[in-house]
Amino acid sequence: MMQSLSKSADRLNDLLKGEIAAVETYSQAIDKIKDQSLCSELREVQGCHADRALLLHDKVSSLGREPAKGSGMWGALANMLEGSAKLFGEKAAIGMLEEQEDKELADYRKLSKEAEPALQPFLQNLLQRQEGTHSKMSNLKHRLQ
């Protein structure tokens, strides 16, 4: 069981890196987008990612692992988004954010199916929260089309 929790801690750390990257990416988008009501919606979603990052940080630490401090390779998405927003505009940036929400949702669903029972309530909570941010960005993307 301990080895299983240890492996899950590593996978939770991967989710943490994704959440840190999401916060960074939303910051990039907010800096580039001029529509203030759109920025307000993006800040709300960014806050949801920041909250999940905090929860994941604490859980990884409680499982005896060192929580990720940065986004690692996920941070490249923030740089890509910055260039995309400059070149292709707000719709493209929102589309990229929504695609990232899709990927994160898949990551949460996969881990929540595979993790040991002790982590299920925690993961179900995070999964529901990720479903909420995914839904917000999906609706936003469709509204802008």
Q: Kindly name the structural category.
A: mainly alpha
Largest sheet: none
The CATH architecture designation is Up-down Bundle
CA(first)-CA(last) distance: 48 Å
Q: So how many helices?
A: 5
The quaternary organization reads as: single chain
Write down the Rg.
15 Å
Poorly predicted regions? none
CATH topology grouping = Ferritin
What is the total domain count?
Answer: 1
The SSE order reads HHHHH
CATH top-level class: Mainly Alpha
| Beta-strand segment tally | 0
Mean pLDDT, rounded to whole units? 87
Helix coverage percent: over 70%
Percent strand equals under 5%
Query: What's the CATH superfamily, by name?
Result: Ferritin, core subunit, four-helix bundle
Shape: elongated
Provide a descriptive summary of the structure in words.
This protein is an all-alpha fold and 145 residues long. It has five helices and no strands. Helix 1 packs parallel to helix 3 (75-88), helix 3 runs antiparallel to helix 4 and helix 4 (90-114) packs antiparallel against helix 5.
Structure summary:
By secondary structure, this protein is mainly α.
Key structural traits:
elongated, Ferritin, 5 helices, 145 residues, 0% strand, mainly alpha
How does the SSE layout of this entry go?
Blueprint: H1 2-32, H2 36-62, H3 75-88, H4 90-114, H5 120-144
